[in-house]
Amino acid sequence: MDYEAVIGLEVHAQLSTNSKLFCSCSTKFGAFSNSQVCPVCLGLPGVLPVLNKKALSYALAAALAINCEIPKISRFSRKNYFYPDLPKAYQISQYDEPLAKNGYLEIFLSKDTVKRIGINRVHMEEDAGKLIHCENEDSSLVDYNRCGVPLIEIVSEPEINSSEEAYEYLMSLKSILEYLEVCDCNMEEGSLRCDANVSIRLRGENKLGTKAEIKNMNTFKGVQKALEYEIRRQINLVEEGEEVAQETRLWDADRQITLSMRSKEGSSDYRYFPEPDLSPVIVTEQLKEQVLNNMPELPLARFRRLMEECGIPEYDTNIIVKDRKLADYYEECVKLYSKPKVISNWIISELLGLLSKNKEEIDQIKITPLQLAEMFKLIDKGIISGKIAKELFVLMYESGKDPLVLVEEKNLRQVTDQDSIDTVVEKVLKEHCQVVEDIRNGKEKALGFLVGQVMRETKGKANPKIVNDSLLKKIKG
Ligand SMILES: [Zn+2]
User: Fold this and answer.
1) Which of 22, 267, 307, 463 has its CA 20 to 30 A from that of 348?
2) Distance from the CA of 133 to the center of ligand 1, in angstroms?
3) How far is the CA of 59 from the centre of ligand 1 (A)?
4) Rounded distance, CA 42 to CA 48, Å?
């Protein structure tokens, strides 16, 4: 049987304001427990919340960037539930009148396929505190610093059909939020959290299957893995004639499985009611204009512009554009060196490789765009070979020194001197008479072996073209 997955994602993004959603407490991560609280975010009697204007404009920017409609009026509601990390016993959220709705996000699936995923809604809400469970003890501690920290929840339509699409969706969303600078998207610190609703159905069918909600996924790859597992689990159940239960499941990253946590509560369990202490949120045309005017070029627009201006392949452009800082770096390089394709190749194969090996981000790199441009010019001038450049690049990465300084320091200059190359070539030819014979008998491919030997003798510094010519001349006379 051919099944398809139906996935909807709920993403909670922490807005990177300095203060909380309804009070002036700091939102700084990592402070001493319960040091960033006040009567408002602790929900003491008699206090009044006041909406953080910056949080509103950040939320609006995010909603507009994913093409949402913004109703003139939205309202806050109380979502009632008791939990030790929620001192008020309710969370201020938005319910039937959210800030934004009916948007979409475009994701790249393969070279030529762009898929549009509907956005059901974007709403603002406050975060809850954090429980710290003491190991080997029968107790838990609670830290209220996170109470009242501003979040937006972005709810997609169930239009994602595979774990790969879910991953792409999250990467695209993250990229937009980073471009807008409204969320630092640090999953480890909890600035970006994602829950997924998953069901399966036979391909071609319209009816939705029973869905399970998956929580506790802490990385984007974790989301992808959890979804892969859950889709397989549901297909196995159905194939065995069993039913999928409507429930909440937890992703166990260590064991790479999802585990049943509890049966899923519906929204009626929360007894939402309008928040009486906050007036409706009115988004004027003027405010909307202001947010739109301050919006940077977004990833998709930048993607299209770079495709046109730099003529680099779609795949490469996509990789570069996803990370705003990487794209900024790339564009700086293009200004200084006029071969965009050479730069993008280098960035994707060499630079990203080194960054990931060293677990670093582009803004930690010591090589400036100017230094990278100079390195390319050294290759063009024949001062170093392309092969040596890779070695040089690692040295630049480690030291932050100028390429030319390193070339002199490490004696990396390309050998173009005919006599010294001829000497090495003669030595190599003597050592490999049989290969020379083979080449004379038409086995042209063996020439590559000899070139390799000469390069080895010269530690990769000989000019490959001169080596090639010299070998041919001496073999064929
Ligand atoms: Zn506070």
Assistant:
1) 463
2) 24
3) 20
4) 11
* CA 125 to ligand 1 center in whole angstroms: 15
What's the CA-to-centroid distance between 192 and ligand 1, angstroms?
Answer: 21
pTM of the model: 0.84
Q: Which of 57, 264, 71 is nearest to 152 (CA)?
A: 57
Within 10 angstroms of residue 109's Cβ, the number of other Cβ atoms is 12
Band the pLDDT of 266: cuts 50, 70, 90. low
List the domain boundaries for the chain.
3-291, 297-409, 418-476
pLDDT tens string 40-84: 999 999 999 999 999 999 999 999 999 999 999 999 999 999 999
Taking the centre of ligand 1 as the mean of its atom positions, its distance from the CA of residue 261, in whole angstroms, is: 32
Measured CA to CA in angstroms, residue 164 lies from 5, 118, 185, 227, 300 at distances of 11, 17, 20, 9, 19
* CA 132 to centroid of ligand 1, rounded, Å: 20
- Distance between Cα 217 and ligand 1 center (Å): 28
SS3 121: strand
From the CA of 271, how far away is ligand 1's center (Å)?
Answer: 25
pLDDT tens digits for range 222-239: 999 999 999 999 999 999
Query: Ligand 1 centroid vs 145 CA: distance in angstroms?
Result: 8
Identify the CATH assignment for 418-476 out of 3.40.50.300, 3.40.50.10090, 3.20.20.70, 1.10.10.410.
Answer: 1.10.10.410
Distance 89 CA to ligand 1 centre (A): 16
* Interval 9-32: pLDDT, tens: 999 999 999 999 999 999 999 999
Q: What is the DSSP string of 225-276?
A: HHHHHHHHHHHHHHHTT-----EEEEEETTTTEEEEEEEPPPGGGG--EE-T
| Cα-to-centroid distance, 276 and ligand 1 (Å) | 19
Give pLDDT tens digits for 416-470. 888 889 999 999 999 998 888 888 888 888 888 999 999 888 888 888 888 989 9
Q: What is the DSSP letter of 30?
A: T
17 CA from centroid of ligand 1 (Å)? 13
Q: How far is the CA of 43 from the centre of ligand 1 (A)?
A: 9
- What is residue 267's predicted lDDT score, i.e. its pLDDT? 64
